[in-house]
Design goal:
single chain; 22-stranded antiparallel β-barrel; mainly beta; globular
Length: 760
């Protein structure tokens, strides 16, 4: 594989990384401290500073691995339980995988149909980021939580209305159907943005996952982002007050209790209210989040109910940009500037519910069934600015967009555990139905002009709302899956075999009218094969072949075969890698190749003649270098290629939005001379990207430095944590990312975050 990485790229990343280390050292240096050497704490309070605790200091990994991960209550598909990852007879009440040393990343993650799998026994590259890591980053959304994953890049701007991503060079959540998993199921999580108030873990399974997770509603194949929701474990009463520049204030609550003689009943509620001006000109945001998790965990029957409601309201939301064909992308403006008009706005409301049940027929057989859904209501009035010349002038036509989204999901199945001779089997069978329906009304305002370097305020326009929302589309995804993980030699060798028969039915309707224009009814079968060989307890060699699936396009009106429905697009991944657990530090190194076909118009006919391929090398590292130093990060080297296209000159070019390098490194240091004080920093680098398939319109590579600190103490016997973070410390102005359809985004300005958390 040929990777285009020049010395200048590596030099810039290295320089930024060393600058971050130097700044951390400067802040931590006693020679530069303005405090006398014997004054090693903040102003006097009644202090009972808790000792640093790492969840990794339990039974050793070696001993845990020697106990079979086949506990009687193995999790059902999508279940957030730990039966497959820890040595215990009952799953933990909170339903989460234990954290690795450093408490930033969990020891395992969900693999869709397979449930939770220990990282060392998984034939895939997956990561699960903990609630503690999310809180310490002061991450408000799913995009904020994944900032240090080198395989993932957010493809929507800070201050925007949507969380979308590129994973391994392919888009995720670009559309109105929502592609976040919730307890392993599509159709439950809020459509556009995940707020971390209700998140216990946020997981990333990297690569296609049709056989394990089903077809993603928008057709994403780069990976699966899954939310493990909070539910009651230990009793908890936690309150947080926070501030974000320029004048955004908020508060968060998180309360958990368990009841009953055996503490079989659990209740957890969390949420927040935040509002005020952001660090972007003219922009303000108001959010409200509320969640409730109820559960019952009896001897053989278990059930969980999750309810979520959230609202997200923007004035002058940040928008992506288009650039005129053939025009070089201008230099990025000051990140605080905003060409969105002060009178443009967005209101999004989400409600979600999920009921999950499990019943153990015996110690080897578990039945499960889930039912849930969500509703999203969108009202917004804004445009999509297009840069029309090198001076940065823009044109935009505001549009009133009224959208309703209804989604439901049902699934059920069985998990069985049994032996055939010396071979142990863990079999899962699942049947599922997902349905969505979209209703939309569009009306246009008048053209607005501005400039990215000197935004102007145009005369106020008002949304021209029209009652009623005609149906825009509906779809139904049905699936029947089976998978068997065979293991021998005390799980030294594990082979996973499985497949999914997927049906895709879809109808499209004329915009603003609601009359049927095209129908779609196709099906496909996607396999999965995964192999893990563990020559030692702390070393895993793994390989997999798995496919992704996206519904095929319908030929547009401009095509001679207008209305023809193309078969589903299949993405194919080959991957191999090695994982090493050094005890306090773990690493993963992998190589992969993903190829995916797509439709295009050629010689007047629309057909699946285009293909994109991404080859890559990934390295991940996390854990504790020593008890007071933690690291998290890695790099991805990507070689994206247009292997097939109707435009011969574009064959061999780099696909839209695929950089050659993504690299992150984050570190934390507990200061030895000031008990309870921790410094943290991160360097984030992304290589050059293109906004066009001809590769004539690049955006430059960029590097961002984040710094922060937190102080953990006890005030009147209550654990209290003060956090301060600065994002984009150096105030870099940069274009951050490119979506698959060629829109690109301005990076975040320097932003200050402060918070105080008290455990009552």
């Amino acid at each position: 594989m040929q990777l285009d990485i020049d010395n200048w790229t590596l030099t810039r990343f290295g320089r930024a990384f060393l600058s971050g280390v130097a700044l951390l050292a400067w802040f931590g240096s006693p020679a530069r401290s303005q405090t006398p050497q014997d004054a090693r704490s903040l102003p006097p309070v009644t202090v009972e500073a808790p000792k640093h605790h790492s969840a990794g200091r339990g039974p050793t990994k070696r001993n845990a691995d020697r106990i079979r991960s086949t506990s009687r209550r193995s999790p059902a598909p999508g279940a957030a339980q730990t039966g497959g990852v820890v040595a215990q007879s009952r799953p933990s009440r909170s339903g989460v995988v234990p954290a690795f040393a450093g408490d930033q990343v969990a020891r395992g993650a969900r693999l869709g149909l397979l449930g939770n799998i220990d990282a060392m026994k998984s034939p895939f590259n997956a990561a699960s980021y903990t609630d503690k890591f999310i809180r310490d980053q002061q991450a408000a959304t799913g995009a904020d939580s994944l900032i240090l994953d080198p395989s993932v890049r957010s493809s929507h701007p800070t201050g925007g209305v949507l969380d979308s991503f590129n994973i391994r060079g392919f888009p995720i959540n670009e559309g109105n159907n929502g592609e976040f998993g919730f307890e392993g199921l599509y159709g439950i999580a809020p459509t556009y943005r995940i707020f971390t108030d209700y998140v216990e873990r946020i997981e990333v399974l990297k690569g296609p996952s049709a056989a394990l997770s089903g077809v993603a509603p928008n057709g994403g194949v780069g990976g699966v982002i899954n939310v493990v929701p909070k539910r009651a474990g230990e009793d908890l009463t936690r309150f947080t007050a926070d501030y974000g520049s320029a004048a955004r204030f908020g508060g968060h609550w998180d309360v958990a209790r368990r009841y009953g003689e055996g503490r079989e009943w659990g209740v957890r509620t969390s949420g927040s209210l935040r509002g005020g001006d952001t660090s972007i000109d003219h922009q303000s945001e108001t959010t409200g989040v509320g969640s409730l998790a109820l559960d019952y965990q009896g001897e053989r029957f278990r059930s969980w109910l999750y309810l979520i409601a959230q609202t997200d309201r923007f004035d002058a939301p940040s928008r992506p940009f288009l650039v005129a064909s053939g025009l070089q992308v201008p230099k990025a403006p000051d990140a605080r500037l905003n060409v969105t008009q002060p009178w443009e706005w967005s209101h999004i409301n989400d409600q979600s519910a999920l009921l999950r049940t499990e019943y153990d027929l015996n110690d080897q057989l578990t039945l499960f069934a889930d039912v849930g859904g969500s509703r999203t209501n969108v009202e917004r009035f804004f445009g999509l600015p297009t840069i029309v010349n090198t001076s940065g002038d823009t044109t935009s036509t505001p549009q009133f967009f009224g959208l309703s989204i209804e989604r439901t999901t049902y699934d059920g199945g069985v998990r069985a555990r049994f032996d055939t001779g010396f071979i142990h089997h863990a079999v899962a069978i699942q049947a599922s139905i997902y349905h969505d329906a979209l209703y939309r009304r569009l009306t246009n305002g008048s053209l607005v002009t501005s400039n990215i370097y000197n935004p102007t305020v145009a005369p106020t326009q008002f949304a021209n709302e029209i009652s009623g929302r005609p149906r825009l589309s509906d779809s139904e995804l049905t699936g029947l899956s089976i998978a068997d993980t065979l293991s021998v030699l005390d799980e030294r060798i594990l082979l996973t075999l499985g497949g999914r028969r997927q049906g895709i039915e879809a109808n499209n309707y004329l915009s603003n009218v609601g009359t049927l224009t095209s129908s779609y009814d196709k099906s496909a079968t996607t396999p999965v094969v995964g192999l893990v060989i563990r020559p030692r307890d702390n070393v895993s060699l793994y390989a997999n072949y798995i496919e992704g699936l996206s519904r095929g396009d319908v030929a547009p009106q401009t095509a001679s075969n207008f209305g023809e429905v193309l078969p589903p697009y299949i993405a194919r991944q080959y991957e191999a890698g090695i994982k090493v657990d050094f005890g306090r530090v773990a690493t993963t190194f992998s190589a992969f190749e993903i190829s995916k076909a797509s439709g295009e118009l050629a010689a007047g006919r629309f057909a699946a003649t285009a293909e994109q391929r991404v080859r890559g090398l990934e390295f991940n590292v996390y854990g504790e270098l020593r008890p007071d130093v933690r690291v998290l990060g890695g790099f991805s080297l990507l070689d994206g290629t247009l292997t097939k296209t109707a435009v011969a000159a574009n064959v061999g070019n780099t696909p839209i939005g695929v950089p050659n390098v993504q690299a992150n490194i984050g570190a934390e240091w507990d200061l030895p001379w000031m008990r309870g004080l921790t410094l943290n920093g991160a360097v984030i680098y992304t290589g050059k990207q293109f906004v066009d398939t001809a590769n004539r319109q690049p955006i430059a590579d960029w590097t961002r430095l984040d710094l922060g600190a937190r102080y953990t103490t006890a005030i009147n016997g209550r654990k209290t944590v003060f956090r301060a973070n600065v994002q984009n410390v150096t105030g870099e102005n940069y274009w951050s990312s490119v979506a698959s359809f060629g829109t690109f985004f301005l990076g975040a300005p320097r932003t200050y975050l402060l918070s105080m958390t008290v455990d009552m």
